[in-house]
């Protein structure tokens, strides 16, 4: 993983090149106040003050230059100078006016590369100076957590199965003195039957398991953090077409978010009793794969008629949610790459957010806006609960007709959450289909920073 630790440094007046970040509305006034050589350079580049305009500005000497970026991003946007973090040559930089603030994160992430399989261009570090040194450590940790999500999601299933998710949890537990418990084999089949059933067709090397990590003072409020860990999803016997299966290495994106958020919580030593749960499976096809029409028993005792083996994520989450609720958490958060319906409704950038608690939802959405990690709340509409009715069992796992697919999936999960426990479910894409500054195409953390800001404010 990229080492971010040296890329942000306290500004002690050391030599550095200057970056001018100018809003389009202020461009003409800024230009009028510049020396003639700057105005000449701007004219030579035919800059008009449009957002995205940029130019190298000459200084007094041959090696003396500064950078101009015309930018209409908010001052508190993490991505305000991310394009420069990607493109500038090796060196040390400072902003001409103000502090980088939240933009330090984008500067770091712009220099992250996933190079496990392909070496990129070798470039030296771009160091950013800041007069807010107290923000450096937190920003570096957040960048590392985001990079962890990206790296895990980008790793193909050939190199990342349930055992590798367990290994990541083991690293976290070792680093922070947490307790790790892994349930698999007969104990999994007996205690978490839906997790076992979904993963039973995988090879022995990719056997299903429930990974649990506990950390913190038992006297502190308990947070249950759950991440869907389907390391590859064929769709099961309701097999996906090739186009639908192409990105299914990312179906463990919920687990990646939960691991990264757990690391942030423990590193900051929030006043929480953390309970991380990752149901880790591969939804494979074999002679013992579960079938459409099978009736599954859950840890909660409820029976589920399986109407679609490609709606497997909610099955494994249900058993994990049940376990989480048995120890009376103050709050439950789950992350899952759960439904295509959420992507149809909201596109790739906006995790669909469901909650049984309005105050919790409002606080989370406010935190998301504050840190520029957008979420969009969708309803747990009680009127659609009837869509989960079954003639054979307590419920089906996938409603007929395809209506409100993200909502009916969330309603299914709600049946396994204690009614009085505040809960939020984030149906995230965990993937960026097109590159943006600081955000390359591929795996990405969507909804991580929002939840982190909420938890830090509540339990820091």
Automatic annotation (TrEMBL):
InterPro entries: Leucine_aapep/pepB, Macro_dom-like, Peptidase_M17_C, Peptidase_M17_N_1. Residues 308-315 form the Cytosol aminopeptidase domain. Keywords: Aminopeptidase, Hydrolase, Manganese, Protease. PROSITE patterns: CYTOSOL_AP. It comes from the Bacteria. One of its GO terms (molecular function) is aminopeptidase activity. The keyword Transmembrane does not apply. The keyword Hydrolase applies. PANTHER family: LEUCINE AMINOPEPTIDASE-RELATED (PTHR11963), PEPTIDASE B (PTHR11963:SF20). Belongs to the peptidase M17 family. This is Leucyl aminopeptidase family protein. It comes from Sphingomonas qilianensis.
């Amino acid at each position: 993983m990229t080492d971010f630790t040296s890329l942000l440094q306290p500004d002690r007046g050391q030599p550095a090149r200057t970056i001018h970040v100018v809003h389009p509305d202020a461009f003409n006034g800024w230009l009028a106040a510049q020396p003639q050589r700057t105005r000449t350079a701007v004219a030579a580049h035919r800059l008009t003050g449009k957002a995205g305009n940029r130019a190298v500005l000459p200084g007094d000497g041959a090696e003396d230059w500064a950078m101009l970026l015309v930018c209409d991003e908010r001052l508190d946007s993490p991505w305000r100078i991310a394009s420069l973090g990607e493109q500038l040559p090796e060196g040390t930089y400072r902003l001409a006016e103000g502090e980088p603030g939240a933009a330090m994160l984008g500067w770091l992430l712009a220099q992250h590369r996933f190079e496990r399989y392909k070496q990129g261009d070798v470039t030296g570090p771009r160091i950013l100076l800041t007069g807010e040194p107290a923000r450096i450590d937190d920003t570096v940790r957040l960048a590392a957590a985001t990079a962890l999500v990206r790296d895990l999601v980008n790793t193909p299933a050939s190199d990342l199965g349930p055992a590798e998710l367990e290994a990541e949890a083991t690293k976290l537990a070792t680093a922070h003195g947490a307790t790790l418990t892994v349930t698999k084999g007969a104990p999994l089949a007996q205690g978490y039957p839906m997790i076992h059933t979904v993963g039973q067709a995988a090879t022995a090397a990719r056997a299903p398991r429930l990974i649990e990590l506990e950390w913190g003072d038992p006297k502190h409020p308990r947070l249950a953090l759950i991440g869907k860990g389907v390391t590859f999803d064929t769709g099961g016997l309701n097999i996906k077409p090739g186009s639908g299966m192409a990105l299914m290495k990312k179906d463990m994106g919920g687990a990646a978010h939960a691991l990264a958020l757990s690391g942030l919580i423990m590193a900051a030593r929030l006043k929480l009793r953390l309970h991380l749960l990752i149901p880790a499976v591969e939804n494979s096809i074999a002679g013992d794969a579960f079938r459409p029409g099978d009736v599954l028993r859950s840890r909660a005792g409820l029976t589920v008629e399986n109407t679609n083996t490609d709606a497997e994520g909610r099955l494994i989450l249900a058993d994990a949610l049940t376990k989480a609720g048995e120890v009376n958490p103050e709050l439950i958060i789950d992350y899952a790459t759960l439904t295509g319906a959420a992507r149809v409704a909201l596109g790739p950038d906006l995790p669909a957010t469901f909650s049984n608690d309005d105050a919790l939802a409002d606080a989370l959405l406010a935190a998301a806006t504050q840190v520029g990690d957008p979420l969009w709340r969708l309803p747990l509409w009680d009127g659609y609960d009837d869509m989960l009715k079954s003639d054979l069992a307590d419920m089906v796992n996938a409603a007929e007709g395809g209506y409100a697919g993200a909502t009916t999936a969330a309603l299914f999960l709600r049946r396994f959450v204690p009614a009085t426990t505040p809960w939020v479910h984030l149906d995230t894409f965990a993937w960026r289909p097109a590159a943006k500054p600081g955000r390359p195409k591929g795996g990405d953390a969507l909804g991580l920073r929002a939840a982190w800001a909420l938890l830090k404010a509540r339990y820091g």
